[in-house]
Amino acid sequence: MDLFNVYPINPINIVKAKGSTVWDAAGNAYLDLYGGHAVISIGHTHPHYVRRLTDQLNEIGFYSNSVEIPIQKELARLLGELSGKSDYHLFLCNSGAEANENALKLASFYNKRKKVISFTKAFHGRTSLAVAATDNPNIVAPVNETDNVVFLPFNDEEALQQAFDSYGDEISSVIIEGIQGVGGIQEASVPFLRLIRSLCDQHNAVFIADAVQCGYGRTGSFYSHDYAGIDADIYTMAKGMGNGFPIGAISIAPKFKAVFGMLGTTFGGNHLACAAAVAVLEVIKQDNLLKNAEEVGQYLITELKKIDRIKEVRGRGLMIGIDLPEDLSTLKKELLEKEKIFTGEAKPNVIRLLPALNITKAHADQFLEAFDRRLKVL
């Protein structure tokens, strides 16, 4: 049997990883500023993380949600503390798409409505309703198509107001990334996020903050939406939550009331996944990684903005987009092949930096020096 060939992959076999360095089978070291797509939040094979998982696996790795799982409550307490949402409730699942799926479903249960507002260049996942709310027709199968999702221009306050004027009390929820990842590191404006909050309050619609990629401390705040000074009704999360172990979740405002059978999952919130997530939060707290993400990220952004050949530098904290002109379209490939640095991308020519939250200024300087070297030969 062969693999189903759906991924364009780099011909590199990573066999070892530590911190922000990974090694291939030939022994070459790479600086990892991609983190497996914003997943590695506290560095590869962090000793506290490895110890937490090992200890848990030696006790019990899995049982379903038909029994008490105390580590779920430990995770909820820590998450509430670090996110500043201690009065919210936690539902655990397995991925970002599943988190968004459950958030959209919960919103519809709450107000008994069907219409969802999403935005241009949004990416919310690949499952049924999550992909229907994703602005990429190439990954929306006919069975996923629905008239219940309305796409509006990102950051367009007038269009948002008009949509609520038109659809009013038909709107179940508005879902938005604080910073669009796949969309090219586009940041939602403070007035736009505040207008979403205001209109949702007026119409009893649900504000869903998709923090799957832009959350978990990546921007220097726990959720990227926090910079607007508002609270969403539901926060979705996944990528950086388990540092590579599959886990997702939604954080749910107190106004939602749980009913047996409303949401469910077999694997979500299992012992091993929760041990991974608890370890991540413990390291974020102990090592003050939100502050590190803010400081090292701002240093990178400031230095990159000094480079004339870059069209634009966007982002916040350690979620950075470097928008390049067409003549530098090969730069990402050059950084990987010639400088041994992993980065991400967004079409057409945006390099995405999504490193671990504990990268150092020395790592940042290593990247900046390599970036400068490549510019001189391109």
Automatic annotation (TrEMBL):
Family: Belongs to the class-III pyridoxal-phosphate-dependent aminotransferase family.
Any Pfam family: Aminotran_3
Enzyme class per UniProt: transferase
Cross-referenced Gene3D superfamilies: Aspartate Aminotransferase, domain 1, Type I PLP-dependent aspartate aminotransferase-like (Major domain)
Example GO molecular function: pyridoxal phosphate binding
Top-rank taxon: Bacteria
The protein's name in its UniProt record: Aminotransferase, class III
This protein's record includes keyword Transferase: yes
Keywords attached to this entry: Aminotransferase, Pyridoxal phosphate, Transferase
CDD domains in the cross-refs: OAT_like
